TrEMBL record:
Keyword Transcription regulation: yes
Name by which UniProt lists this protein: Helix-turn-helix transcriptional regulator
Domain (HTH araC/xylS-type): residue spans on this chain: 192-293
InterPro entries recorded: Homeodomain-like_sf, HTH_AraC
Amino acid sequence: MQALDIDVIALTEILVPHGHRVKFGTIDVPGIHYNLSGVGRISINSGPAIPLSPHLLIIVPPNTPFMIEVDGGSGPPKLISKDCWTHQEGILRVAAPNERPEIVQVCGFFNASFGQSVRLFGELREPVIEQFEPADKIDLKLREAMDELLQQEVGVGAMTASLLKQIVVSLVRRSLRSSQRWTERFSILADRQVTRAFADMVARPGAAHSVQSLAHSAGLSRSAFMARFSAIFGQSPMAILRDLRMRQAAVDLTTTTMPIDVVALNAGYESRSSFVRAFRKAYKRDPSDYRRTAGERNARQDV
């Protein structure tokens, strides 16, 4: 799972008292919702209500609105207005003032990719629903991630991403023994031979890989490897390799001062001109322009 990359966008704490509800609009990344305590219901994209109970984990697809409700009191549940939403050190807290919450939920909005190529939840079309147990300690990992953000220590981003990665890994492990449809997104993890070859591509994108060498790494014939790889990724091995090489080049351009020729060699290109053409096709700009723009953006963020 070293190739699993997590980018944490935001963490949110949702506290809904009896007789209240909260509504969220569309967010362009998936969200992990873990119900720490309490019972209620969640409706995703105006669909049927899903009962909420302690230790229930739900992944809401990108760009999908949802609503959480808790019964109680007279009349329909009252909406917790956005005037009651507060921000503190990167954490959004949604709560009704002076009310004891029934539902206590921690949400992490994130992007997850495997080897920078396979977006695990980016194309999700229906929610993922899994019931965990206290022994799985998902709640502790989320609380620790929130504490990291609040303390704002050195390396907070890496630590928060690492904690959320542990949760996604727990979900991935669960997927290997689940029959639910969403687990198809993790089919690569169940194919150990293809995973072996893909891990080699991720670890050494600039190496002189070929379909034949990757098939040998997987312990498969060329035709069997091509068929199984393409079935999992929806693309050929060489197409995925080009993506990995471009991502490697983008990282080198934004985090090092190495010359363009060296960046090209590190990405597996002996010719600078062929590298520039490939990079321009992937990122719609020349490598030097990409580096300059990234540097200007980072400078603005440091101000």
